[in-house]
Amino acid sequence: MFSFGGGNAASYLKLTEALDPDFRCVTFEMPGKGSRIKEPLLRNLHQIAEEHYRQMQGQLEGPFAFYGHSMGCYVAHLLMRRLRDEGKPLPYGAVLTSKVAPAHHFDKKRSILTDAEFTEKLRELHGMPEAILNNPELLRIFLPMVRNDFYAIDTFRHRLAEPYAVPLSVLCGTEEQVPDVQLTDWQLESSIPIEFQRRPGHHFWIFEDMDWLLNHLKTRLSYGN
Predict the structure, then answer these.
(1) What is d(CA 36, CA 67) in angstroms, rounded to the nearest whole number?
(2) Which of 33, 40, 74, 143 is the most exposed place for a label (fewest CB within 10 A)?
(3) Does 225 have pLDDT greater than 70?
(4) Beta carbons within 8 Å of 46's beta carbon, 6+ residues apart
(5) Among residues 31, 39, 47, which one has the least CA distance to residue 79?
């Protein structure tokens, strides 16, 4: 499970605790976050994917699937390409939520906003508690971490490559200002027909519609389906 920008290994705790016990959920702690808070942050999305890949070693002994939200979708995408290129087993499925297809990615320059502008952008995404957004001391701790991830996303450059043979389920909130074509073009990355759905809500609809998402993960990512 690959976290969104500003997230860490605990970001999906509610999901993992509620997910069917048949699943063994694996999350990842990146440098500069959580238990690794004293390490330098990674500012490049390829470096972030490489760190995930390093931590994944030994985790791919049996059937596995991917889930990513927002930035985590691109991490999953880069890892699927890496596994494909190295001739290693691919995930039998991937659920990707709330991120445009890589072919439509462009630099939104969010990481260079002033602190006030950046804070307002986070408020619009509904991804950070108001208790943090309204607390200057907490913001001084969290803003650099989140801004760093936004920089990694903004500066990511997509490169054309052969599609990977992984069925993708692409989901997005109805209130996200993203045209359908920018989501359905995830099909460019997979040689298998993708599934696309909209769910009610904003960018972090996954935590407001968690029961539905849990059922979707169980349905789409149960091995052998």
Answers:
(1) 22
(2) 40
(3) no
(4) 78, 156
(5) 47
Distance CA 3, CA 33 (A): 12
Which tokens sit at 6?
A: 């500003």
Q: Is 198 in a helix, a strand, or coil?
A: strand
Each residue of 143-196: pLDDT tens digit? 889 999 999 999 999 999 999 999 999 999 999 999 999 999 999 999 999 999
Please compute, for residue 177, the number of CA atoms within 13 A of its CA located in the half-sphere on the CB side. Answer: 2
* Domain spans of the chain, in order of start: 13-105+160-221
94-97 sheet: strands from edge to edge: 66-69, 94-97, 168-173, 195-199
Q: Cα–Cα distance between 169 and 220 in angstroms, integer?
A: 8
First CA to last CA across the chain, in angstroms?
A: 19
Residue of 189, 134, 133, 141 whose CA lies nearest to 164: 189
For every residue of 90-156, DSSP letters joined together read: PPS-EEEES---GGG-----GGGS-HHHHHHHHHHHT-S-HHHHT-HHHHHHHHHHHHHHHHHHHT-
Which residues, 6 or more positions from 98, have their beta carbon under 8 angstroms from its beta carbon? 69, 70, 73, 171, 172, 173, 176, 203, 204, 205, 206
Reported as a pLDDT band with limits 50, 70 and 90, residue 126 is: confident
Give the pair of three-digit tokens for residue 184: 């359905």
CA distances from 5 to 76, 129, 133, 183 (A): 13, 15, 16, 19
* CATH dotted code for 13-105+160-221: 3.40.50.1820
Tokens 């691109």 label which residue? Answer: 74
pTM of the model: 0.94
